[in-house]
Write a structure and sequence with these properties.
It is globular and about 45 Å long. It has one domain: Nuclear Transport Factor 2, Chain: A. A hairpin with a 2-residue loop joins strand 4 and strand 5. It is built from 3 helices and 5 strands; from the N terminus they run ββαααβββ. The protein has 120 residues and is of the alpha+beta class.
């Protein structure tokens, strides 16, 4: 897999030919990262593609099981990424006072294992 690199602001890089591309595990990690940032209904070519942040995560009345739902959505996005073979380890935390959800996953890819983490 090859993937266009992101700059420090999270934008795609252009203008340096092959230097703007990344390969292997780095490419898969970046693909996972960008898939997490794409929100449902944001991409005009496929309105169903993306993380349903507003539809199923934010503003949903707390049932005590919301973290399980978010975990499931995150895992599904990771597993739907090209060259991902599975998730070997997954952990998440939710801080109710700051309303911060964070996850870390060890992902088995075609090129080897990688660790990805992010916060919502």
């Amino acid at each position: 897999m090859k993937y266009r690199k992101l700059d420090v602001n999270g934008d795609y890089t252009f203008g340096k030919g092959q230097q703007c591309l990344t390969y292997g595990t780095y490419a898969v990690a970046q693909a996972i990262k960008t898939r997490m940032k794409l929100l449902k209904n944001e991409w005009f070519e496929d309105l169903e593609e993306g993380l349903p942040l507003f539809q199923q995560i934010l503003g949903v009345r707390g049932t005590g099981d919301n973290v399980t739902i978010v975990d499931s959505l995150i895992k599904s996005r990771i597993l739907g990424t090209t060259d991902v073979r599975g998730i070997d380890n997954f952990s998440s935390t939710y801080d109710s006072s700051s309303r911060q959800y964070s996850y870390t996953a060890t992902v088995n890819t075609k090129y080897g294992a990688i660790t990805v983490s992010d916060s919502l």
